[in-house]
Structure formats: C-alpha cells, structure tokens
Amino acid sequence: MSDLLSTVVSAGTFEGNQELRSRSELTAKEVMREVGAVLRMSEADVALLAEVESDPGEDQTMIINMGPQHPSTHGVLRLMLELKGETVLRCKPIIGYLHTGMEKTGESLTFMQGGTNVTRMDYASPLNNELVFSMATEKLLGIDGDIPERAVWMRMLLSEMNRMSSHLLFMASNGMDIGAVSMMLYGWREREEVLRFFQKVTGLRMNHNFIRPGGVAADLPEGWRDDVLEILEMLGPRLEEYDTLMTGQPIWRERLQGVGVITQQEAIALGATGPILRSTGLAWDLRRDMPYLNYKDVDFDVIVGSYGDAFDRYAIRLAEIRESMRIVRQILDKMPGGDFRIQNKKVTPPPRARIDESMEALIHHFKIFTEGFKVPEGEVYVAIESPRGEIGCYIASDGSATPYRMHVRAPSFVNVQALPHMMRGGLVADAVAVISSVDPVLGEVDR
Amino acid sequence: MTTDVLHDCVLGQSHGQSVLFVPKDRYIATLRKLIDDSYTMCVDLTAVDFLTHPGRMLPEAIAPERFEVVVNLLSMRDRTRLRLRTQVSEADASIDSAFDLYPGTEAMEREVFDMFGITFNGHPDLTRILMPEDWDGHPLRKDYSQGRIPVQFKGSAS
C-alpha cells in the first residue's frame, strides 16, 4: 500500500480500490485497519475494541452492495455491507456518483453568478446554500455589517421556511423508508405549500438564486404575510397529525428506538453536526451559539435528544419544524420596511428605470452582469446552521471577479461518515432506518 | 497583516477570523496542542492550489508554496473558530494525516487527495473518493483544465 501511495501523485495511475474488499484478500492487519477506517478510529483504538470479531471466517460472511440505485439511499449513495447472517459487520459508504465538479465550476463563475452554482448542492435547502455563499462574499467585500435590516430579516424568513420544507421532506422520506407510506404523501403535501410560497417570492420552487451578495434579488410580493400565516395555520394541526400517526405509535417507536445509536464523543470526533450531534444531548446550534443574521433577536429553543438514536433524530426534526414556525411568527412581527439590498454601487446593479434614462447606468448594469464585481484579495470561512448541520463556505479570492477557490463544507458529506459507525452490529433491515435518519442529500455529498 | 504568536506559530487575522500559519513539520504537534486548548472539533479540511497566484498575502515569516492545506477548527467550549494554513510544496506534496486526532477528517483528507493529489501520511484508506478510481489527474489543481462541451450551432458550416 505504501509503495502504491508514493507513486500516486503523478497522473494516470490507479489509486487503489475504493470498494470494500473481502477478507480473503486482506491480511489480518489490513482487516484491522479497514475496520478502523470504517469505524473512523485509529488502529490503536480499534485494537482496544474487544467486541470486534477477530475473524468470522470467509465462508461465514457475505459482502453485498446496497445502492447506488436502492430506493432508500436518497439518491445515489452506495453502501457496501459485510454481513454475517443479518448482522452488519463492516460497512463502507462509496460516494461520488453525483460528482459534477461544482467547486471547479465555482472558480469560473463570478461572485454574482456563484449563487446559481451553490444553490444546486443541497437541493433540499437551496436558500441556506445561497445564504452562506453570500455571507462569505460580503465578508470578503467588507460590507457584511451594512446589509439593510429588511434584507437580513427576509433572509431569516426564507432560511427558516426552508428549514421547515427540508424537515418536512425528511418526514416524508423517513416515513417512506420505514414503511409509513401515508406519511410520505403527507410530508410532500405540506412541503408543497412551502414551495408554493417560495415560488411566489423567488419565482422558482427550488434552486432560487434569490439570496445574493448584497441582499436579496427582489422585495417580498404583495400579500406575503397572509401566505405565511396560512402556512403556519395549516402546519400546526398537521404536525399534530404526525404525532398521532407516528410519534406515539408503538410500531414506529419499535422501529426507530435504539437503532443507529451514536454517542456524543463519537459525534464530535467524526465532526457530525446538526440533528445528529443534537440527538446525543449536546445543545449545539450555530443560530444560538454563534449567532449570525438577527438570530440573537428571536426567541427559540435548541432541541436535543438523549439517546442518540434514530428516533431522537426524527423527534428533533419534528420539533425543529415547530421552532422554525415560532421564529417565523416573530419575524412577521419584526419585519422592517426599507431596502431589500445594499445600495452600494459596486455590488448592486442600478434599478431598471435608471437604465432607460442614463447611459452610464446602462453600462454599469452591463458591466456588473457580464464582468461581475471585483472582490478584494483574502480568504474567509463562514458557517451557518443548515437543516442538516453546519454548512460552511471557504472562499479564497485573488482580487478578481471570480473566486480563486470556493469550497463548501457540506454537512451531509461529513455526516455520512457516521453511517458505518451507527450501523455496525445492527441488522441489515435497520440499515434503511439509519440512512434515513442521517438525512443525507447526495447533491451536497458529492458536489 | 497584523501578526501574533500561538504555539510558536504565526497567528494572523483575516476579516476578523484567526488564522494560524503552521509549518508542515509541526502540523500534528500543533493540532495536538490545540485539542488541549479545547479545539475538539475539526469542522473542515480542504486545500488551495496557488499555482497561478503565487504573490498572495502572507505574513513575512511564511514562505509561499504551491499548495496550502486549510483546516478549520471549532471550540465548542469557547465558541471560537481557528483556521490553520499549512504550506505544502509541489515537490513533496504530502502532509501527515490528522486522522488519529480527528477521525472525522478521514473523508475530507481523501477528498483533498482526490482533488489535489496531496498525500496524507498515515491515512488508513487513502483512495479516491469522488472521482472514479482510474481517473487521470487531480481536478481542482489549477493546471487541470476545466474542459468544455463543444456546442454545434444549428446550421453552422462546421
């Protein structure tokens, strides 16, 4: 292995097998290391794990593929499972089937266009992606403190509505994975109402490119307040229905409780964030602990679990929908008037009416949309709380109109590493419940 | 760039964020000290290829190299973040793996290896993660062209 590694830097070389290998191809030490890699532990730690079966024997185990076309893998996640009977011994997630080089693409798009790229990463919560990209760009420009209040509150409104739609989608997919098919229909139905609101505000149901450096693309439309209130009124009783249908239901509890357990130390070591980390009892939410936008001005609770199992993660997401509704109600009261984007000529294109009367405005408008605006040299990392955990954006700028390097710290990419850990020793039938409870979005995992 | 010193490394500021410039040979040792300083979570690990932008802003004591490995740490106790930037040369594009200290870097280091061809010594399973295993080159390097799909316009001669 080490000989192989020393030659891999040159192009065109085979770089080792990504797949889970059978025990007969491995030495005992390599099995140990592979189990360690699967557990994401060091070799010393693995050796200490007394429960690791030394060697079940080649004829005792079987390696099977789950995915990438498995309906419960949320897209194209592929898991290789080593099974002994119905027990999962080893598991390795294999990703990359949806890799489209978005970080490379991001290097050739201007900061103005970048939103269209990042919004497609986590397609279940596109507005949060745009938000973190815009905030990073604004920090580089040095205008992060000058964003008009209305734009900030609008961003919060959209971010929270997006959290609701994303968690409703989780309710749907989680129900479907576990066999509560009616829940799937209910979840999609409710999410649709939120998407309809997005369509009214941004023009699109997904991939909005609405939150942009400097503010948002347009003001809220007429009657937006009634639309939001309608959604909030509709959602309250519907969430009660979910409780009746699932939370208190013995079959649902049996299916999820004690499945896919992860401890707090493991979650921190693996870098897992969001509902996975909170399910272990650690109240860590960037909205409260490292506030951005105006989250310090609204009142909400950080929901934590106590067992770190799939049921906790389900219950946290359900409760987070309610917390988001609570935040949205406060936003409705606090939404100020004013501008929806910064009036900084460098960043904001002139209004449409000015183009008709001023040649300079026309040129300026054309320049901003063709060349984009130049961003001073520097590098910055900004993180916010997306429905799946900490989404971060690292941008290194060389002073031109395109990012020199744009990296998105995708919460799903890191959270997927927790899968082998949660699955080990469990039943293969629970694997579906575990994948579902992590709620990965593969567009974001593979980018 | 105003500078300070933390664990014998240059500590700079970038837009109000703390950036620690760690020499490659003291990378793991510094991480070990930072864990004791309550930086228990490695949030992100990535790299930048500065091939076409060699004259970037760096503190005077730091000699620029082609690659930079960027690590973002989080202290939940103090609610602070710290960014580590380590220069990695083109001739020896390798660095020690942080896997033993932060097991969560496993996939991130694989991604950097895949995208930049930087080797992480001591990584348990260093293979490509996003690209196919027989892929040529490392896509996020600046000398790797983006590629384009030829567009043939309707009715054009060619």
What this model shows, in words?
The complex is a heterodimer of chains A (447) and B (158). Chain A is mainly alpha-helical. Helix content of chain A is 49%, strand content 11%. Chain A has two domains: 2-94, no CATH class; 145-368, Cytochrome-c3 Hydrogenase, chain B, CATH 1.10.645. Chain A is globular, with a radius of gyration of 24 Å. Chain A starts with a helix and ends with a helix. Chain B has 158 residues and is of the alpha/beta class. Chain B has a single domain (3-121), classed as NADH:ubiquinone oxidoreductase Nqo5 subunit (Beta Polymerase, domain 2, 2-Layer Sandwich). The longest helix of chain B has 12 residues, at 105-116. Chain B is globular and about 65 Å long. The model of chain B has no long low-confidence stretch (mean pLDDT 86). Chains A and B meet through helix 2, helix 4, helix 11, strand 6 and strand 7 of A and strand 4 and helix 2 of B.
List keywords for this structure.
heterodimer; A: 447 residues; mainly alpha; Cytochrome-c3 Hydrogenase, chain B; three-stranded antiparallel β-sheet; disordered N terminus; B: 158 residues; Beta Polymerase, domain 2; two-stranded parallel ribbon; 8 strands
